[in-house]
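step 4 of 6: structure.
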Amino acid sequence: MTTAAQVFQALGDATRRDMMERLTDTALSVSALAAPYDMTLTAVGQHLAILEAAGLIKTEKIGRVRSCAINPAGLEVLEQWARARRPLWQRRLDRLGDMLDEDDA
Amino acid sequence: MTTAAQVFQALGDATRRDMMERLTDTALSVSALAAPYDMTLTAVGQHLAILEAAGLIKTEKIGRVRSCAINPAGLEVLEQWARARRPLWQRRLDRLGDMLDEDDA
DNA sequence: TCAATGGTCAAGTTTTAGCTTCACTATTTA
DNA sequence: TAAATAGTGAAGCTAAAACTTGACCATTGA
């Protein structure tokens, strides 16, 4: 099961967000995915496991090569989380008339 | 400045997500927010600092009480991040015809 | 005015996330 | 079939995140 918690945690890491960007327009093998990072293949494999558990990618091993591709399921979890809360949050703000300052330090 | 990185990291923590839920329909003081957790007030203050830096809440100290309320700015960052990527990700999946299995283990 | 309340600061501890090493398996190519 | 390629598993290290302690300040109510 993919939870919002998993998706948030997965995307909280810069390397994993970058991997997602790189998978946007093409599927990549673990090695290809690993190439730009100063990191062992093992570490990359661990990142991929986290992304897959979060439902953000799908992987399939063909022969000795594991192909990694985007899985929009995780993104949907994210969007639904945001969509479910925004009206409530917005409504509350409207009710109070935004009594707090508008600048975020 | 509020970045996607900050928002993801902030919401990756279960306590902080729960705090956001509890702020949905009312503003709360630090003590009131802290009450349900088996955690010191200091720790709660640290969580709030992270949420505020991420643009997810706004706080204002009136007298000796700090009032904490939802700030939709952080949520917007999240929604925009998802909205910007979904069409690209979806397009790619359509192009390939979803060659990978549909189950997410 | 002085004790209680609400919160903050600096410093330290504990737990967890990210990463490495090394040994290993399975597949492919020469 | 032997060497190279692609990746995995288990264990340990390290640095960052979560949390605590203890001292402290400002506000408020008795």
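step 5 of 6: annotate
 - Residues 29 and 65 of chain A are 6 Å apart (CA to CA).
 - The interface with chain B takes residues 2, 4-5, 8-9, 11-12, 14, 17, 20, 24-27, 52, 55, 58-60, 69-73, 75, 78-79, 82-83, 85-86, 88-90, 92-93, 96, 99-101, 104-105 of chain A (CB under 8 Å).
step 6 of 6: archive
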